[in-house]
Amino acid sequence: MTGEHDPLTFAGNPVEYFNGSRLAMHTLPRGELERLQLEAARLRFAALRDRVPVLTTMAEEQGITELRGLDDAAPLLFPHTVYKSYPASLLTDNRFDRLTRWLARLTTVDLSEVDARGLGSIDAWLDLVDERTPLRLAHSSGTTGTMSFLPHTAVQYDRLYEMVRLDVTPDADVDVVWPSFRTGRSGIARHATAMGQQLGGSPDRFHTLHDGHLSADVMHLAGRLRAAAARGELDRVRVPANLAERRAEFEDALDATGRGMGEFVQRLADTLGGRRIASLSTWDVFHGMAEAGSGRGLRGVFAPDSVLLPGGGSKAGALPEDWDRGVMAFAGVDRLAYVYAMVEVIALNMLCQDNAYHVEPWLVLYLLDPDTGRVLPRRGTVTGRAAFLDLSADLFWGGFVSGDRVTATWEPCPCGRTTPRLHHGTVGRFGGAGGDDKITCAATASALTETLEFLNGALV
Amino acid sequence: MPAVVRGRVHEADPVEFPAGFHGPDPVGLLPVLPLRDPVALSDLQSVPFAEVVDLLAELGGQLALSRNDFLQEALSLLPEFSDLTADVLRSTYLQLPGLFAPEAVWALAERAIGAEFLDGWVSSGGAAVRAFGARAVHVIAGNNPIIAAITVVRSAVTRGDAIIKAPANDPVTAPAILRTLVELAPEHPLTRHLSVLYWKGGDTGFERGLYHPAQVEKVVAWGGFGSVQHVTQYLRPGLELIALDPKLSATVIGPEAFASEAALRETARLAAADVGVLNQEGCFNARVIYAATGTDEAGLATALRWGAMLHEEVQRLPAALSTPARRFDPELRENLRGLAAAPDWYRVVGGRGGEGAVVVSLSAEPVDFRDALSGRVANVVPIDDPAEAVRAMNSYTQTVGVYPDSLKRVLRDTAPLYGVQRLVSLGYATHFRPEVPQDGMEPTRRMIKWITDESYDPASTHPFAHLAPDAPAWAGEVR
């Protein structure tokens, strides 16, 4: 630990603060951790309160001028709906200028010079924001017909994967396997990009299922189609001409996510066989890879010290009970490094040997009563709705209420870590909350299929 | 929760259901539950309709809450399961006797079916037609206790055999009504053809034993998407689904409402009834309100002012008709909070204490969570022309409350093409009339098996006459 006591370094650059020690991050005495978190939270709140308009409004409504304790921030944790509160017509009518104005209420970044007039697609807008600002917006899968945009920053993603590097491969670069599109701006795609850069070093060590770009416009159109179909209004969806023109590209992409998985695992076996890799994906995609591998008789493909980071969980019944065995057999590893991650919060929260996800120290964990939203006590083992204050957020407010129901224990873990932990196997979704608006590559494949089917129908 | 099967009350050997109450094991009741012999309906078929009316009238008399122990007990238990509050539930229970009154029953028989078809063969154009009852399972909704009563009346009027699936959010009303009937007329054929029990929807072990064309001919399924959806797996030739599927309702208010202070107040009061009565639990309650205030600055200011009045009027509704929700949907609460991020487009009036809220859109666009509005939360959407509103309707739009009535006449020829099924004067959306069509069809009529008897005389009509090249287009009797 550095001698200097600086809560903002702790919040924004924990690698520096803890001198590169992951163990130190998770073994502070609880009181000390919470004092540090409170100091950082107070500084963040003081800096953002008058500069992030949505936070200003909420703080005024609640009459909160300062944080005396961590629980004081609970009424200021944003519901997930904040990030999709713009009218849906802004996307369908290409009003990206107004969408930029909406975004400006969520961040301190000056967007007045970002001229989004005349843009014709979500992708183009995300491009523009990437180019002109330090923000790296992460979009949701849009499966419910609306798309959330989270105003994260490039620095946050970079710092996170500097840290993941400490966990995975402190000494040398490693091949990074990303079983999806090479580029994209969904929450998980942002992770993949940062992971490729921080762990792989060079682009040729970033191995992807498809060389193309996962289009936010495709995801959005697919979500709208699904929502419209559910409402019996499919005939009222207008397809933007620029999407209709990209049909061939989608066809190719769909092919890659479907049949392409077999060729991909073969290519991995041929080029990376026996080598150490790191890979991040969702449970279902890892399962799909393993299935494709077993179809080709591929087993023990990578070096045994490879690191596979599955996240996202599974809907009941969606995966076989023993899907993890299949993945381990395919990859040739004897454990999986499960993570508890979400688009809204920049952390991976890795699983310890005692089967619990440890909440990273720059995240203040809250457990809320699912009905009333009140904070549950920070002691013992508690079940509730998980919420976080992400102290790494410096250009936007990191307070966020998730749709996840979790069981957490506040007391130290047998593994030695002192950070609060969420029990593996207790993480579920609250009905409705956030719906199925989660980032999964299963959604990617079906989004492509649905979009294509609709385009084919519309173009005939 | 007891089960009542064909005049017998079953309370023994209860099992616990996931919904949080006990009742007899439905599988154990399977041997006595369905009417396997279709001819066994003949006893009810031969009861004159007037006698059905009399019995229902007597039953209605027994359903006075103050004198009926079964109903009192049911009402004391119901708040634990219902989304309605105790005050509002009490009001709905007071409504029950009226549904069994002879005038109401005759109106249903006459307008929905034609009473003469119930008592015998009605000749017309060379054919005679008679209405026969069918063996039906009724998967009813529990968001309003009167649905249980309406189901009993409809089944009695059509002289069908009814197995009612009590809903988890009202497992008590239908059993209480049937127990009252059992005490009143234990051996009457009507009593012997009414049953109610609870099982968990989707319990395939039980449902496979029940839903079979040899013992059930129709399934009347109310309510949520799930309940309608899972019934469909049992459908096959001989088993018909009458789906009263999930619906939402809307409101269209013409510019007249905003022409004077008095009209503003009056329409806010009327709209409040559509939004708030029965706590917005019904599919007929208003949710999105299209208001032709105009979308210019003055129009938006009017929409905001009227939205605030609407919220006030909803809050003023008497507790017997409307109260804050028992449990305000946390997801909706989050959606309302989220709108704080978009003040250029939406303003929220109220909503902090779960008392209800009005979201005023500042463009002609409803909130994207419009289908999840509940707990007395409405969305006022300003528009320039009332016809715009109709374009947002679809086949899930059951009721459209309209002001003024003259606008209803303008909308009623086009709105149905978009899917709208019912237009009603603003303020009266929650008036339910069992005798008129519902959800774009006539459920009572569909509960009937319509049987024909056609007569020919070889002396005047050759058996091949219909295929003769010069066969008349109309071969029936010309009057």
Can you offer a commentary on this structure?
Chain A: InterPro entries: ANL_N_sf. Chain A: This is Acyl protein synthase/acyl-CoA reductase RfbN. Chain A: It comes from Actinokineospora spheciospongiae. The complex is a heterodimer of chains A (460) and B (479). Chain A is of the alpha/beta class and 460 residues long. In chain A, 39% of the residues lie in helices and 17% in strands. The longest helix of chain A is centred in the first third of the chain and has 19 residues, at 30-48. In chain A, the strands form three sheets. In chain A, strands 1, 8, 9, 10, 11, 12 and 13 form a seven-stranded mixed β-sheet that branches. A four-stranded parallel β-sheet of chain A has the order 5-4-6-7, sandwiched between helices. Chain A folds into two domains: 40-76 and 344-438, no CATH class; 84-340 and 446-459, no CATH class. Chain B has two domains: 3-246, Aldehyde Dehydrogenase, Chain A, domain 1, CATH 3.40.605.10; 248-425, Aldehyde Dehydrogenase, Chain A, domain 2 (3-Layer(aba) Sandwich). Chain B is built from 19 helices and 19 strands. Chain B has a seven-stranded mixed β-sheet, with helices on both faces. In chain B, helix 13 crosses helix 14 (297-316). Classes of the chains: A alpha/beta (460), B alpha/beta (479).
